[in-house]
Amino acid sequence: MANGQKNRIDVTIHGTSYKIIGTESVEQIRLVASLVNDKMTEISEMNPNLDTARLAVLTAVNAVNEYVELQKYVEQLEQELKKLKG
């Protein structure tokens, strides 16, 4: 939200309810919560004996790894764009 107003939204992630507060749009908050829930479900299905804390850490590690890979890809695209402009 451009004006800095905070949105408050209830979401459920891996069976637990959370109140998320942020300046992002309600749609974005819901999307992020849904993606986290999906990733936790995916990891939990592959490792059904994980406790919630370990599941959360593995989900965070996976998410940050995807973020790092995307950063590398963006940097690569920026370099290619510079070459095309130069």
TrEMBL record:
Activator of cell division through the inhibition of FtsZ GTPase activity, therefore promoting FtsZ assembly into bundles of protofilaments necessary for the formation of the division Z ring. It is recruited early at mid-cell but it is not essential for cell division. Homodimer. Interacts with FtsZ. GO terms for cellular component: cell division site; cell septum; cytosol. It comes from Caryophanon tenue. InterPro entries: Bac_CellDiv_Activator, Cell_div_ZapA-like, Cell_div_ZapA-like_sf. GO terms for biological process: division septum assembly; FtsZ-dependent cytokinesis; septin ring assembly. Keywords: Cell cycle, Cell division, Cytoplasm, Septation. It comes from the Bacteria. This is Cell division protein ZapA. It is found in: Cytoplasm.
